[in-house]
């Protein structure tokens, strides 16, 4: 709607706040299946021109094997 992805600094606000120019996309950002917040990196490192979005997985620790990430499929 804005022609760009939200930045890391204000991504939650941009998705949950209505302005004169933009609609509210959701009431609140959902938690991952384990009740933790998702991680968001505006300047994605894996797919050009898309942000990285990931869950720290069941253990809640970033960078471990159980992380769920947006830049590869569920079978990889």
Question: Topology of this structure?
Answer:
Elements: H1 11-16, E1 39-41, E2 52-55, E3 68-69
Antiparallel strand pairs: 1-2, 2-3
Give the CATH superfamily: Glycoprotein, Type 4 Pilin
Q: State the helical fraction.
A: under 10%
**Count of discrete structural domains:** 1
Topology as H/E string?
HEEE
What's the CATH architecture name?
Answer: 2-Layer Sandwich
Straight-line distance between termini? 31 Å
CATH class: Alpha Beta
Class computed from helices, strands and strand pairing: little secondary structure
Describe it.
Helix content is 8%, strand content 12%. It is mostly loops. It has one domain (1-18, 28-76): Glycoprotein, Type 4 Pilin (2-Layer Sandwich). Strands 1-2-3 form a 3-stranded antiparallel β-sheet, with no helix packed on it. The model has no long low-confidence stretch (mean pLDDT 80).
Entry summary:
The protein has 76 residues and is largely without helices or strands.
Essential attributes:
single chain, little secondary structure, three-stranded antiparallel β-sheet, 12% strand, 8% helix, 76 residues, Glycoprotein, Type 4 Pilin
């Amino acid at each position: 709607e804005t022609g760009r992805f939200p930045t890391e600094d204000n991504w939650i606000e941009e998705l949950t706040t209505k302005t004169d120019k933009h609609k509210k996309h959701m009431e609140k950002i959902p938690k991952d299946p384990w009740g933790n917040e998702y991680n968001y990196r505006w300047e994605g490192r894996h797919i050009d021109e898309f942000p990285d979005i990931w869950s720290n997985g069941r253990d809640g620790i970033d960078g471990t094997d159980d992380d769920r990430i947006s830049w590869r499929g569920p079978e990889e």
